[in-house]
Design goal:
This protein is an all-alpha fold. It contains 2 helices and no strands. The chain has a domain at about 10-65. The chain starts with 5 loop residues before the first helix and ends in a 21-residue tail after the last helix.
């Protein structure tokens, strides 16, 4: 009995590559911030509220990723045992 694992292995490699890229961005961001802290401190103290407000739409986009947006959801049983 032989099994085809081509697509499963490709998905795993893409997932690993995505996490490596995210790790690289995190490390690069850390060094960018630490090396330029003196330049950023004046800017961040003046514009921190705008950065906070800009984070709201980004969080909104990422939080709607799994369930498909603002559309109506089909009725389903609640995980706690109740019904809708």
């Amino acid at each position: 009995m032989t099994h085809e694992h081509g697509s499963h292995d490709e998905n795993r490699q893409q997932s690993k590559a995505k996490w490596v890229f995210i790790g690289f961005l995190a490390i690069a961001g850390y060094f960018l911030i630490t090396e330029h802290r003196a330049h950023l401190s004046g800017w961040l103290s003046a514009y921190w509220i705008w950065l906070l407000l800009l984070a709201c739409p980004l969080m909104h986009l990422f939080m709607h990723h799994d369930h498909g947006g603002h559309g109506e959801h089909p009725s389903r049983k609640d995980n706690r045992g109740g019904t809708e």
